[in-house]
Amino acid sequence: MSGTEKAMQGVADTLREFWAHRPVRPRAGRKAGGVATGIALRYQIDPVIVRIAFVALALSGGVGIPLYLAGWLLLPEEGDAVSPLESLINKGHSSMPQAQTVLLGFLMFPALAFTFGSGGFQVVVTLAAAVACIYLLQKNRGHLQPATLADTVPAPPPVQGAPAWDPLGAAPFAWDLPEPAAAPQPPAPRPPRGPRIGLMTLGVATLVVAASAIAGAWVSWFTVPHVIGLVLAVLAAGLLVGSFAGGGRGLIWLLIPLSVVGFGMTAIDFDGSPSSLSSYNEKPKSVSDVRDRYETSVGSVQLDLRDLPDSGSVKTAIEVELGEVRVHVPKNADVTYRCEASSIGELECLGKRAEGTGVDVSGRDLGENGEGGLKIELDVQASVGEVKVLRD
């Protein structure tokens, strides 16, 4: 076995060990699903650092959102033998209701669409970095016994004023003497106040909002989603500083809803345009009825061109982030096509097939009667999904 094969085998063994001794989501002390808290307790690190890591991954192309949902589905809850997803396929019992498991599974689809649609290379690099972090944690801290929340709670201080003199042992003839008064204790010094990270971070975020409102009068870039992104970056920086300097944990309760709002504003078109979440099912009768472009983020496009006349020219483009595209073309039409799945998908375009990540097919098909007649030019793109161009 070569050195490279041994290294790959070692990585595979470490990841299998991680799965065999994977973190458990606690019932207490968690903020949402307990994924970050479970990882922190498993490897004995500060839960705030793990939460900040998920926030940073969410801001880096949205990778943290599907990763957190995957952890929620694949990590068992405290007291359960299997994870919610394993329970759904009858591998054991989980305390999470199956309806909630199915809902989390459905949420994975828009999360993946948002993530892979934001930039392929960045997403791949970020996912690789997340897997590398899991590998390093298991490699270097996998031998540690999982901590518990009780380990982080300080023991109560001893009760002051307990009697230090036993009259029964020191002076039996003076059993009726009163217990001597305890010596007065000096007041405990007040602990030094830590840095007020939370207030300082909120102050900086307020300044960012005010400056963005002023700059927005001259620079069109300062839209509401962009300003929310700037505020999220400030809050994430405050949490990161607070994890080392102490304080600022309350910022997470502001960061989470802002992240949800930012995700919604970038994934859903609030101007009433059907381009973000929609489906098309059209069967045009004339060349003029064919749109120049069909576009949706999550949905399907069903386009039947078989009722078009035998002459003329049609050119259209179809783009889907997550979903299915199916185009039917006439038997005698001359079709020039290009089909692509930029992230992952399956293509079947006029006899040419491809599946996997980053695949595409293209060509020109003249139909049963050879060249002549209706000319169709198709450009079909999908980030995640299935593309079919059929002559039937």
Provide mean pLDDT, rounded.
Answer: 78
Strand fraction: 15-25%
Structural class, by secondary structure, is: alpha/beta
Specify the number of helices.
Answer: 11
Largest sheet: 7 strands, mixed
Distance between the termini: 52 Å
Helix-strand pattern: HHHHHHHHHHHEEEEEEE
Short description:
The chain has 392 residues and is α/β, with parallel strands linked by helices.
Describe this structure in words.
Strands 1, 2, 3, 4, 5, 6 and 7 form a seven-stranded mixed beta sheet that branches. The protein starts with a helix and ends with a strand. Helix content is 41%, strand content 20%. A hairpin with a 2-residue loop joins β4 (334-349) and β5. The protein has 392 residues and is an alpha/beta fold. It has helices at residues 3-20, 35-43, 47-59, 64-74, 84-88, 98-117, 120-141, 167-170, 197-215, 224-245, 252-267; strands at 280-282, 293-304, 313-329, 334-349, 352-356, 359-365, 375-391.
Keywords for this entry:
single chain, alpha/beta, 11 helices, 392 residues
What is the strand and helix layout of this fold?
Layout: H1 3-20, H2 35-43, H3 47-59, H4 64-74, H5 84-88, H6 98-117, H7 120-141, H8 167-170, H9 197-215, H10 224-245, H11 252-267, E1 280-282, E2 293-304, E3 313-329, E4 334-349, E5 352-356, E6 359-365, E7 375-391
Parallel strand pairs: 1-2, 2-3, 3-7, 4-7
Antiparallel strand pairs: 4-5, 4-6
Helix pairs in contact: 1-7, 2-3, 3-4, 3-10, 4-6, 9-10, 10-11
